[in-house]
TrEMBL record:
Source lineage: Bacteria, Pseudomonadati, Pseudomonadota, Gammaproteobacteria, Oceanospirillales
Swiss-Prot/TrEMBL cofactor(s): Zn(2+)
Keyword Magnesium applies: no
Annotated InterPro entries: AstE_AspA_cat, N-alpha-Ac-DABA-like, N-alpha-Ac-DABA_deacetylase
Name of protein: Succinylglutamate desuccinylase/aspartoacylase family protein
Domain of life: Bacteria
Pfam families listed in its UniProt record: AstE_AspA_cat (PF24827)
Alphabetical keyword list: Hydrolase, Metal-binding, Zinc
Length: 343
């Protein structure tokens, strides 16, 4: 039986074709219309409807490049199912190099949204109704916030044997965090609707980090392959091992001052280790930032200026710390050499 066409925002995509759709979202102050750009690849064969979206936070541009490379990949030819790619959800923030919407709201706290609410609520409702509700599976792409960088990691709510767990393991990021759901996030909404959803967090806002982009593209393709959306499964190697963190916490600045980090992203640290030092500009008053746990540095500040209490180093804890360390080593060696980012 031939596959039915796929309808999105009033546009029809026939089986075996792809189409770019500009979903009208709102108007700028100037009255110029603004759209969320979407590309749909509607395969000839039955399969899942995978939504891959980036830029819910408008300054997280690694995700935009992950989507671009995914859509240029030859591997999605002959797709089973449908791929819905949205490189930039928060188009307002993207134009301003900002995480937020023009009203300072965080779009990832606005779901499920409302058609009669504020701008954030309306954008969330529109994205949900026109795009998210079509999906059977979701991968939501993020980076660290501004001046913060993340080791590539998957965040998901994992229950043993669930589709979400299988997707998380297939992705091949070195670390998986069984992360609490935040009210109002896309992940929270999808989880309540019963749509398996992963969040990929890697790199820094407003930067292209090749070591975050390359594994992001590979990870999305691996998940699609695991779900039977891509051909050639038998020829592919299994994804590199990922370690599940059993918790995480931030080491904070003990005083106001200037930070000199002593550790790198991915470093294994022990409880009490010095992660960095914060000092006044002359170095007279100086205090060490110490790790409160044995673990791995999965996120850190990139700005050397800190106020007392500011979160500087994100430390994940593991039951199997040796395995976590070796998963990170394997991950780093899988990226050697990194491809030319301009290809
Ligand atoms: Zn984000």
């Amino acid at each position: 039986m031939p596959r039915a066409p796929f309808d999105l925002a009033g546009i029809r995509v026939m089986p075996g074709s792809r189409k770019q759709i500009d979903v009208p979202v709102a108007r700028l102050y100037t009255h110029a219309p603004l759209h969320i750009p979407v590309e749909v690849v509607h395969g000839r064969r039955q399969g899942p409807v995978m939504l891959v979206c980036g830029g819910i936070h408008g300054d997280e541009i690694n995700s935009v490049e992950i989507v671009r490379r995914l859509m240029r990949s030859k591997q999605i030819q002959g797709l089973h199912g449908t791929l819905v790619a949205v490189p930039i959800v928060n188009v307002f923030g993207f134009m301003q190099h900002s995480r937020y919407l023009p009203d300072r709201r965080d779009l990832n706290r606005c779901f499920p949204g409302s058609e009669t609410g504020s701008l954030g609520a309306r954008v969330a409702a529109l994205f949900r109704e026109q795009i998210v509700d079509h999906a059977t599976h979701i991968i939501d792409l993020h980076t660290g916030a501004i001046h913060r960088t993340n080791l590539p990691q998957i965040r998901a709510q994992l229950s043993p044997g669930s589709v979400t767990e299988r997707m998380a393991n297939a992705f091949g990021a070195p670390v998986i965090l069984n992360a609490e759901l935040r009210e109002g996030s896309l992940r929270h909404y999808a989880q309540i609707r019963g749509i398996p959803v992963l969040t990929y967090e890697a790199g820094e806002a407003l930067r292209f980090d090749e070591w975050a982009i390359t594994p992001g593209v590979r990870g999305v393709l691996r998940v699609m392959r695991r779900l039977g959306m891509l051909a050639g499964e038998h020829r592919r190697r299994p994804p590199p091992a990922a370690e599940l963190a059993n918790g995480s916490s931030w080491a904070r600045a003990p005083i106001d001052g200037i930070l000199r980090p002593k550790v790198r992203l991915g470093a294994r640290v022990a409880r009490g280790d010095v992660l960095g030092k914060v000092a006044d500009p002359f170095g007279n008053a100086e205090a060490a930032v110490r790790s409160m746990a044995d673990g791995i540095v999965i996120g850190m500040s990139r700005l050397p200026l800190a106020n007392e209490g500011e979160a500087l180093f994100h430390i994940a804890r593991f039951d199997a710390i040796e395995e976590a360390e070796s998963a990170i080593e394997t991950f780093h060696s899988s990226l050697e050499p990194l491809p030319d980012p301009l290809y």
